[in-house]
Amino acid sequence: xxxxxxxLAAAALAAMGCLAVPAYAADQAPAPxxxxxxxxxxxxxxxxxxxxxxxxxxxxxxxxxxxQWNAVAAVMRENAKSYEDLVRSEHINPATMTAVDDLxxxxxLAEHHAEGVKKLETAFDSFYGSLSxxxxxAADEVFRAHKRHRGNxxxx
Length: 156
Known about the structure:
Layout: H1 4-17, H2 24-27, H3 37-59, H4 66-90, H5 99-129, H6 133-149
Helix pairs in contact: 1-5, 3-4, 4-5
């Protein structure tokens, strides 16, 4: 049982905040119970759009790289939307969730997270291949900084 708790904690953290593109999932965490669904949706959409712009700027995406970058951004948007859909479909009420409900939900989030990372990995790999050495260095640092910010949890 002692080994299960760290594994569950790691799965929960991975599901909630460690997508390959830094801070993406953390920006998409479920809204507090006081927020309405439309408010949360608008907030999540702003967060993913802000993250896309931030990465675009930090990586100095060139016109020649726009097609590959657009594929990365599209996956980020798709992942955000599917995450929103998952949370909305579960009708989450943290105040009434049992421990078992919570674990089932985190298992779904972990699966969703893994699927999203795989999609993002494919798009980002193609984009990364188009980067100059300076851009690769910037991308590597963005990922390392995210890893430090997230408490050194492994980034996929």
